[in-house]
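Duplicate of earlier report; Stage V sporulation protein AE input re-posted below.
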Amino acid sequence: MNDYLMTFLVGGIICTIGQILIDKTKLTPARILVLFVTLGVILGALGIYDVVVEYGNAGATVPLPGFGYALSKAVMEEVDKEGLIGAFTGGIKGTAGGISAAILFGYIMALIFNSKSKK
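Output:
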């Protein structure tokens, strides 16, 4: 039960920060997205996000900072294995599964539902 609560709290805090940024700043959603991913990379590279993931589980890995964290971890592991070339290939290898799933599920939803443009 504690795992579910921590997942909910960590994910909720991340989403709350995003909502506050939308409401209280002039940042566009695209800039907030980039900010969250970049923070995930930086905190992941410094080892700080590891603690957040340890306590928050999916609440920390599913939101956008989790994507940046996955990028940083994959790049660091690949650099340890392959050297400098790992800086270019690590992010692709580490996040390929998630990106592929997003494309596949997006395509399935496009087949099932009728999309409409905003007017």
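The chain is about 85% helix and 0% strand.

Merging into the original ticket.
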